[in-house]
């Protein structure tokens, strides 16, 4: 491959990775081509992209794109899966591994990645995949924030109801006494 082509590849990858905040670097050696196509298709459905990269060129591209923390993860056949949401990237990969079967699960290895441009380990990638999605997390936070306010409102409503019952019983007592 000529230097011009290599430089063009580095430039293109640098441009693509410049906007990447979240990614997972993985090894896929030994996975049949048909399963790799299935993986790419599954990732696309989940708004995740995957690039198979050449190691030396990828290191240069990562360096130029500000992802130098990933340079040491590039060894052997390497792919990078990336998307806007780091949890979605990890979830999409682990979902595919569960569906692909034991053979593919043995061959695909997470090497690590980046979350908000900070390096994460392969164990952290797996931990990310176990988190709830963004909508669920927002709902959980919102319910946690709203719960105390709802309790205060119900206590106030109960107190007001007790005052009303007290006034009503006082009125009934006065009526019985004839006053």
Which key terms come to mind for this protein?
Alpha-Beta Plaits; 179 residues; 2 domains; alpha+beta; 5-stranded antiparallel beta sheet
Kindly estimate the percentage of residues that lie in beta strands according to DSSP.
Answer: 15-25%
Domain count: the total is 2
What is the CATH H-level superfamily of the largest domain?
Ribosomal protein L10, N-terminal RNA-binding domain
Reading side by side through the largest sheet, how are the strands ordered?
Answer: 2-3-1-4-5
CATH class of the largest domain: Alpha Beta
Q: What fold name goes in the CATH topology slot of the largest domain?
A: Alpha-Beta Plaits
Helix share, percent:
55-70%
Structural class: alpha+beta
| Average pLDDT metric | 85
- Rounded Rg: 28 Å
Total count of helical runs of at least 4 residues: 7
CATH architecture of the largest domain: 2-Layer Sandwich
Dominant shape: elongated
Query: Roughly how many Å apart are the termini?
Result: 106 Å
- Describe the largest sheet: 5 strands, antiparallel
Write the H/E string, N to C.
Answer: HEHEHEHHEEHH
Count the strands?
5
The parts where pLDDT drops under 50 for at least 5 residues are none
Task: Characterize the structure shown.
- With 179 residues, the chain is α+β, with helices and mostly antiparallel strands.
- It folds into 2 domains: 3-131, Ribosomal protein L10, N-terminal RNA-binding domain (Alpha-Beta Plaits), CATH 3.30.70; 132-179.
- 63% of the residues lie in helices and 15% in strands.
- The chain contains 7 helices and 5 strands.
- It has helices at residues 3-18, 33-45, 55-65, 86-100, 102-107, 122-129, 134-177; strands at 22-27, 49-53, 78-83, 109-115, 118-120.
- A 5-stranded antiparallel β-sheet has the order 2-3-1-4-5.
- A hairpin with a 2-residue loop joins strand 4 and strand 5 (118-120).
- It starts with a helix and ends with a helix.
- The model has no long low-confidence stretch (mean pLDDT 85).
